[in-house]
Amino acid sequence: MNGASNGANDASWLDRLVDWLPTTSLFKFIAAKILVPIWAWRTPVKRLEGGPRPSVQPGDNVQRMMNLVMPLKDKSAVGRALAALAIAQNKDEIYAGLDNVGTVHFARFVIVADNICMFSVYDGDFTNYIRDFIVTIGSVFDAVVGLVEGGDKVIPSAEHVDEFIDWVHDHDLFQVSDVATDILRDQEAVNGDAGGGKDDLRKLPRQLILQLNVNRNVSLGSGYRAYPGYSAAQVRQRFGVGW
Amino acid sequence: MSTAFNPADVQGNILRGYRKPRVRYLMIEITEPIAARRWLTACLAGSDGVPQITTEEPWETKPDICFNIGLTYPGLRALGTPAASLASFPTEFIEGMNKRAIKLGDAGPSAPENWDKPFNQPARIHLIASIYADDVARLDSLQRAAISDKWGLKLLEPARDGWCFNGDYVHFNYTDNISQPKFAEIHGTDNYPDWDSQPMAPLGTVLLGYETNFEGLTWRLPQPEALGHNGSFNAFRVLEQDVVGFEDYLTSAADTLLKHRDVDALLPPGDEAKIGAGLSRRDALRELVAANMCGRWRNGVPLALSPDTPNPSPDVSRTNFDYGATSRCPYGAHIRRCNPRGAQIVQRVANHSRRLVRRGMPYGPAYVHDPSKPRDPNEPKRGLLGNFIGANLGAQFEAMSCDWLNLGLQDPRVTGSNDPLLGANEPATSWFDLPLPSGEPIRLRGLPRFVTTKGGAYTFLPSISAIRYLGAMSG
């Protein structure tokens, strides 16, 4: 009996040590600066694609989120002001675009640090959404994207439709699934592994860290709705405001 | 960008239907690139026993056989196409049809992991050759001549044969092949407005290097220009049709309607004869449901012009119509979903923009619906070998498939439902609204999936110049 209880005390002591260690500055430093880079070097992880998860459920294909984070070329107050002006000068076109494209619920422009961000909620397929906007108000896209690193090669958007859509998709944040094992599935899919069925849940935090190592900005979940998904046109029709 | 149109540079299966009784599709793996490139060159001249590629050049007498090819992205790579050229192709083509499955509604039984051979190995499908002839013996001999080891080509079994039924009808017993985009360069503009209410399509609807459906927008031309110009893209699909399930559904829908309180508004008693002489009320309702699901009566007469009878007097155009605010064609009918013409739609910029050239032939024996016969558990496989051709797969085939055919984003009155004929329907959640001349529609439920994807591939249909370019590549 004594031996057993001593053993339990040892384990508790060890457990407490293991729990305590990661909270120490030294351990945090080693983990972030040494362990993660070594992991990342030993286990190369591909960056997961941005945008909502593909789904055939109608409810998943309305009210989808786009989260574009685009680093400005000019990382000064002047650069940020130019971005602000590009939006302000095109306000009327943006409203006209929303009206004619018909599949957008909300669109917001935000400057965070030296990034111009565009967050929107749209219905249906991503490429159709962007293509329809290029058709309608491509010049507004051009004005904004022209201020962004790497944007010059995809404007004017009307002449680089495919490249522009791919470029925007590349700047759309990866949406981390709310379902824990999906991160394993996503990683397997992007690495081309057959995968599945052999989940080692202990690897989950590691996979998440490795993904966040290559994907610095992500969306947590795909947006949380307070009511079921309806298209913008369904809302407009029900409220009799024209669609 | 050169805009003068040279029909001799364009493969012949893009802008016209050959209307041959038989077609065979050969799925081919390139095992030896140098020999395969020699084969491409031989195809241009029709030398060394290889059939000659049929072009768009006008003919006085129709040739005995027609022959065309499409290349997949793995095929272009297997031929040794330079990396810079490969990278200039659009993303959806590079990824391939199987990777785009969710967008196309290819999930569940239609998912690529359930596709038939050889489509279950998409990386090996490099080239899809199509042969059109009058009979099977001719197809066999052409196949032997066209494909052999000496050309570095391996046939991936099984080949797929399609054939024309007597007349223009297809499985589910609808008349097909009625409406296609019309091009000024091909069809001329004389009398056009009387023929079709839709605007003529710019050549860039189907060919790369021309003005597109969207003013001011150009699609990326695969490089070099000799490779991209006058090319096109094709979504080749093997679509299995559950003909028995379809006829059974019509019967169960008719039985449901017979008990519906508004059935007399849908079909006023006494009007059965308008639908067909001697039809029972139940059979008339079956045909009415079939017509509403498609948007055309089974003989091709559009509901938009003749909502009450497939035999209007005087007769009506099969093509010259639009969907006005009072149209009796259901918002969710197949032909209206896939091509809303000038109807009010959510995506206002998209009217007329997602049109495709469709070339298809049925496979499997024609089905004759006979309710008195017991259901055969070994019904032969039936379906459609379809080609959905356009200059931009993403802007046309995929855009139509994911937002319109399924999901129904174009009209809030159908959003959340799928196409009644082709859609990825689940009986537990599916619905389809039958419009009544006045008031609320009657909602049908429980539609199963009638069409299951069994295979397919995105192919590039190279121009004659492009085939010459590919054949002459070195390295």
Brief synopsis:
The complex is a heterodimer of chains A (about 240) and B (about 475). Chain A contains nine helices and five strands; from the N terminus they run ααβααββααβααβα. Chain A has about 240 residues and is an alpha+beta fold.
Task: Set out the fold topology.
The complex is a heterodimer of chains A (243) and B (475).
Chain A lengths: L1 H19 L4 H18 L21 E8 L5 H13 L1 H11 L2 E9 L2 E8 L3 H20 L15 H11 L2 E3 L5 H10 L12 H11 L3 E3 L11 H7 L5
Parallel strand pairs in A: 4-5
Antiparallel strand pairs in A: 1-3, 2-3
Chain B lengths: L21 E9 L2 H13 L20 E6 L1 H6 L4 H5 L3 H5 L31 E7 L2 H11 L6 E3 L4 E4 L5 E2 L3 E2 L8 H4 L4 H4 L29 H4 L3 E10 L1 H16 L4 H4 L5 H4 L5 H14 L39 H5 L18 E7 L19 E8 L3 H12 L25 E4 L7 E4 L5 E11 L2 H8 L4
Antiparallel strand pairs in B: 1-3, 1-4, 1-5, 2-3, 6-7, 8-10, 8-13, 9-10, 11-12
The CA-CA distance between the termini of chain B, in Å, is 29 Å
Question: Which regions of chain B contain 5 or more consecutive residues with pLDDT less than 50?
Answer: none
- Count of folded domains of chain A: 2
Question: Of all protein chain pairs, which has the greatest interface, and how many residues does each chain bring to it?
Answer: A-B, 38 and 37 residues
Helix/strand-derived class of chain B?
alpha+beta
Query: What series of H and E elements makes up the topology of chain A?
Result: HHEHHEEHHEHHEH
**Number of H- or I-type helical stretches of chain A:** 9
What's the multimeric state?
Answer: heterodimer
The SSE string of chain B, one letter per element, is EHEHHHEHEEEEHHHEHHHHHEEHEEEH
Mean pLDDT, all residues of chain B: 94
**Classification by helices and strands of chain A:** alpha+beta
In which range does the helix fraction of chain B lie?
10-25%
Q: What would the average pLDDT of chain A be, to the nearest integer?
A: 89
SS strand fraction of chain A: 5-15%
